[in-house]
Design a protein that fits this description.
The protein is an alpha+beta fold. The chain has helices at residues 32-36, 92-98, 116-119, 143-150, 161-171, 223-226, 238-252; strands at 2-6, 9-20, 53-62, 67-70, 108-111, 123-126, 129-132, 138-142, 175-178, 183-185, 188-192, 201-207, 210-214, 258-260, 269-274, 279-282. The protein has a single domain, classed as Ribonuclease Z/Hydroxyacylglutathione hydrolase-like (Metallo-beta-lactamase, Chain A). Strand 1 (2-6) and strand 2 (9-20) form a beta hairpin. Bound molecules: zinc ion.
């Protein structure tokens, strides 16, 4: 289990799955040959054969007053078109509880965007029905994001995301549609990072002079720091997503802001640095636990 302390705020990672390869459809330019030129990606983010390693995890932000889960992964029992994501039976809720956060303890669910791997555990299957997994939480969804997917049939191409993972929490009266700049509490506010989806947001944490940013899918993989033109095939607007990535790199390079990647493999967090040619991701002396 990985954990970071940002002033009074604790961020805990709970992994649903971490895999190497199988993600080439996401970043088609990131071939083994192309990533070999970016030496610092090994060993954490690229394996020995040049495959990208990626993680699907939730991040729990615990402030003095709130317990916020950011992105709820793929979820169990959901019919999905990708075989490795279909009808999962993974111990995610048990792992969440082991990390100190039984599902009843969560007071806020925050989706950076409404894609298949960010909304799954919004609901769980009970007696053949999709019910809210976090009954005591408000579910925060960006208004722009919600309105976009609301008029699309079903959701993204991986399955009927809206029907099984979004509409049930909406129907239960648990959703608050929020602005892309919304402040959640003293230590946490949203930062608009459009492009991957129309209303995509990242999550900014500040406490006692320390800062962190949870990327969402503005970056899928640290290789996009070195190769800023590698947009994802899953980006709704590749020009906008590239502009967003460039803005984030300029804004946070060589700063003390801890960047916590939503799909970055272990060790997941680090600092953006800039050398003469390009940007890179500094994870210090981190060692895989
Ligand atoms: Zn994603």
């Amino acid at each position: 289990m990985q954990q970071w302390q940002i002033g009074k705020v604790k961020v805990t990672r709970v992994v649903e799955m971490q895999v190497a390869g199988g993600t080439r459809f996401l970043l088609p330019q990131a071939t083994p040959e192309a990533v070999a030129d970016v030496g610092w990606l090994k060993p954490h983010f690229v394996d020995a054969s040049g495959k990208l390693i990626m993680s699907i995890h939730a991040l729990i932000i615990e402030t003095p007053t709130r317990k916020i889960i950011v992105d709820t992964c793929i979820g169990n029992d959901k019919p999905r078109s990708v075989p490795g994501w279909n009808q999962l039976q993974l111990p995610f809720l048990e792992d969440l509880e082991k990390a100190g956060y039984p599902r009843e303890s969560i007071d806020t669910v925050l989706c950076t965007h409404l894609h298949v791997d960010h909304v799954g555990w919004n609901t769980m299957l009970v007696d053949g029905e999709w019910v809210p997994t976090f009954p005591n939480a408000r579910y925060l969804i960006g208004q722009t994001e919600y309105e976009y997917w609301d008029q699309e049939d079903g959701g993204d191409s991986f399955g009927d995301i809206m029907s099984d993972s979004v509409r049930p929490v909406y129907a239960a009266g648990l959703v608050d549609l929020v602005d892309v700049n919304q402040r959640l509490c003293d230590e946490v506010y949203l930062e608009p990072t459009p492009g991957h989806t129309p209303g995509h947001i990242s999550v900014h944490i500040t406490s006692e002079g320390q800062e962190a940013l949870i990327t969402g899918d503005s970056f899928h993989h640290p290789c996009q720091m070195a190769r800023t033109d590698w947009a994802s095939s899953a980006d709704y607007d590749q020009q906008a997503s590239t502009a967003t990535r460039n803005n984030l790199l300029e804004k946070y390079a060589d700063s003390d802001v801890l960047i916590i990647g939503t799909h970055f493999a272990t060790p997941t967090a680090g600092h953006i640095r800039q050398n003469q040619q390009d940007y890179w991701f500094d994870v210090g002396q981190a060692i895989d636990p």
